[in-house]
User: What shape does this take?
Amino acid sequence: MNLESYKTQLKPGAHWSFIVRRGMQLKITDVRGGSNVGALFYNPTMLTESYNAPDTLKCQHTFKLTRGNCLYSEMGRIFCSIIEDDFGWHDSVCGNTHASHVEERWGKRDYQNDRNTWHQNGYDSFLVELAKYGLTKRQMAANVNFFSEVSADADGQLKLSRKAEKGQSVTLRFEMDTLVILHTCPHPLDFSETYPASPVTLELTKAEPVQEDDFCMNFRPENQRGFKNNALYHLGMES
Assistant: This one.
């Protein structure tokens, strides 16, 4: 059986991983509003190559991620490009919640006693998925937090200033085969009264081919170099 597309829903406080092939796109949609989607990216054939947040932000002269931005590996290649985005700001500096954060804010709940209503945290969620591919905390890179806008207050302290509304989405086009690891755990700066619980849908479809006038490729001169690095990486491979 050949699949043309795939769609699933990721529950709150859950984790997921999949190897997304070059030329595919992944649309992530907030179902209820208020979600946070933590994301990591790796080269599935060379797992030491992972998402590099400093290079991604530095070479595109930005603090936020939105349409037009590309997500770079530490080898100067592009894992994926943000081709659609109706939220407009995604965090790439604040990292993950840990078990201690979740317990302090929303109380201690574990799977043994609370089953599927327990409170999972982003750090441990990533560890579970990383282990499936022989990776450990030593290979955990800085992650993206989709649907979380971060700003500085009057004292220069970062705060979570905006979360997604119901139905908002972001679409990633993959420029190389990529191991994608996601979780739907709270943002580390989320101090909501109750544990945030919004599911997201994930939809994989085939992307349109990249053209010479592609918005993401031409968004910054550095992105053109990134696409050239990808072209060299794929030299000799069947398209």
Remarks:
- The chain is about 20% helix and 30% strand.
